Amino acid sequence: MTRLRQVSLIGAPTDIGAGARGASMGPEALRVAGLAAALQARGAQVEDRGNLQGPVNPWLPPQDGYRHLPEVVAWNTQVHTAVYAELQAGRMPILMGGDHCLAIGSISAVARHCRERGKKLRVLWLDAHADFNTNTLTPSGNVHGMPVACLCGFGPQALIELGGATPAISPKWVRQIGIRSVDEGERRFVHEQDLEVFDMRFIDEVGMRHAMELALATMDANTHLHVSFDVDFLDPSMAPGVGTTVPGGPTYREAHLCMEMISDSGLMASLDIVELNPALDERNKTALVAVDLIESLFGKSTLMRK
């Protein structure tokens, strides 16, 4: 992109919604992998706001179908406040997680900002999982499997009301890409709510290019594009550092094409990077791959055509 972007990095070091410990170390791994310098090299003006503070993970069993709900609410409230403040200041927030439950706070803040500014919101959910569970559908109670459902109004009151409007978003605003692991009850619920999903079978059949053309269709200059990038979107052969690996994800080139086409739209205005788990990684390999892909989101390309 040619215009100077004012970017704010926000660390949320928690694994409060996850089923494995270690995503709390994700923000530091991204810093070590050189995220700020990589964005500066792409022409962004970067401020690292440091890490948010929240409750420690008590590592308890679920209650009423939710694990750690009070702590999840506390972390997401912090994220909401921080992301909303950056948007109000005209900056692009990049949330460095932490697990994917944090997208409830992040996207509810983006939705609030869009309501106030009269902008259309589109969410691209890059993930191996649909994250559309509820407390009655979930096999685990881990809230990182519920953020899309919560944002669409299906969840505990404290989470679905976080951004001041319920639901925060409509399922029609979401495009999910790379999905390949969905619980049985969750699958039915996704179909009932008419969520638009470009799963790996679809990408195998038509290719990443066509899938992304469809996912990016009908956007215009008044669209705020939010990208929620779960690192387990990638195939575990190149991104082993996640708690929920699922084989059969996009290849290295498919992932870059996805990011390059998002960049070409010129509409991305906020970003989550979540579920990076350095405890399960190999010499920070996954963080380095993630930074590489985020450079493509910010305009890095090998395109040689004129």
Automatic annotation (TrEMBL):
Instruction: Answer whether the UniProt record assigns the keyword Manganese to this protein.
Output: yes
**One term of GO molecular function:** arginase activity
Which residues does UniProt assign to the signal peptide?
none
Keywords from the named record: Arginine metabolism, Hydrolase, Manganese, Metal-binding
- SUPFAM superfamilies attached to this UniProt entry: Arginase/deacetylase
Q: Which family does it belong to?
A: Belongs to the arginase family.
Q: Which NCBIfam families match?
A: rocF_arginase (TIGR01229)
UniProt name for this protein? Arginase
Q: Which organism is it from?
A: Roseateles paludis
